[in-house]
TrEMBL record:
This is Adenosine deaminase. It comes from the Bacteria. HAMAP family: A_deaminase (MF_00540). Substrate binds at H22, D24, G181. The keyword Lipid biosynthesis does not apply.
């Protein structure tokens, strides 16, 4: 029996949660054009529609290094207070328009200090912009809560310093930490001092792993560094054969380690071959705590509504499947337990019940 189709409008209205989304990969094309003009930064094109197409073309190259290189242009406009404030505020409003009720946005403060801002000033400015966006979204009747993850970069040596920022701002909207950047050749364990410090300070963290590098990267992130979640993690399937789980895959499933999966982005970087065959469906069916995410809205040309719709159309997902990954995301959010429970009970479940 085929699953009943789900209308695009139904998908759009479903309450959503996103855990893996990069601020510097989520600018509106028109905003990027305007801010680049003010900064004197040359873009591939100054036509917003053509610029969006350029990003998608570059992202669809199947090369993670080229995918990451597109951030040169977005980062160029995030070096001053105006750019950070506007981007953060618009980011929240775009989440609200997408039906997101809870989101976690991540960025690397160390990449945003070329204009003279200090690291604390970068964080303070982004938080100010996010707060402004949340206030406007609430006033418009589409409330959304957004927490921040601060990223250290794998290829640099400031991760301990950025971890200190996460601790300093944990009562001001920063909910956790991440290590980002090129995965292959830059092991997470190089940043053990940051992770050990965060554990001592009881600050949760996730680690990009299992995207450009395989099982050893996931194992190191979990068993050496102590990550509570895994960014992407698609290559955990290399430890699964005919539905039988190996030791690492069993650990991930049994300990309910959330996998922050990003189907469109994974196709673009070559970590997956199709939406229909993306590991998220197999892992969901095997009982893993998979979550659905956008990764980079501008760079991947996507939204949560689009990611959900693709899985419905190409992988046969149902409303119940979408509810599962949404509940998974809230359960794994870097929020206090009672707040997660209330969000699931009062917002997520009623929103899906209306669509069933």
């Amino acid at each position: 029996m085929t699953a009943p189709s789900i209308s695009a409008d139904t998908v759009r209205r479903l309450p959503k949660a996103v855990l893996h989304d990069h601020l510097d990969g989520a600018l509106r094309p028109a905003t990027l054009v305007e801010l680049a003009g003010q900064a004197g930064h040359a873009l591939p094109t100054t036509d917003p529609r053509a610029l969006a197409d350029w990003y998608c073309e570059a992202a669809n190259s199947g090369d993670l290094v080229r995918y990451i290189a597109t951030f040169e242009h977005t980062l160029a406009v995030l070096q001053n207070r105006e750019g950070l404030l506007r981007t953060a505020e618009e980011y929240v409003l775009d989440l609200a328009e997408d039906g997101v009720v809870y989101g976690e946005v991540r960025y690397a403060p160390e990449l945003m200090v070329k204009g003279g801002l200090t690291l604390p000033e970068v964080v303070e400015t982004v938080q100010e912009g996010l707060a402004a966006g949340m206030a406007k979204a609430a006033a418009a009747g589409t409330p959304v809560r957004v927490g921040t993850l601060l990223c250290g970069m794998r290829m640099f040596d400031r991760s301990r310093e950025i971890a200190g920022l996460a601790v300093a701002f944990r009562d001001a909207g920063v909910v956790g930490f991440d290590i980002a950047g090129a995965e292959d050749g830059f092991p997470a364990a190089d940043h053990l001092p940051a992770f050990e410090y965060l554990r001592r300070e009881s600050v949760p963290f996730t680690i990009h792993a299992g995207e450009a590098h395989g099982l050893p990267s996931i194992h190191q992130a979990l068993q050496v560094c102590g990550a509570q979640r895994i960014g992407h993690g698609v290559r955990i399937t290399e430890d699964i054969a005919d539905g039988k789980l190996g030791r690492l895959a069993s650990w991930v499933r049994d300990r309910r380690v959330a996998l922050e999966m990003c189907p469109t982005s994974n196709l673009q970087t070559g970590a997956a071959s199709s939406i229909a065959g993306h590991p998220i469906t197999e892992l969901k069916d095997l009982g893993f705590r998979v979550t659905l995410n956008t990764d980079n809205r501008l760079v991947s040309g996507t939204t949560m509504t689009r990611e959900m719709s693709l899985l419905v159309e190409e992988a046969g997902w149902t409303v119940r499947d979408l509810r599962t990954v949404t509940v998974n995301a809230v359960k794994s959010a870097f929020l206090p337990f009672d707040e997660r429970t209330a969000l699931i009970r009062d917002v997520i479940l009623p929103g899906y019940e209306a669509a069933l």
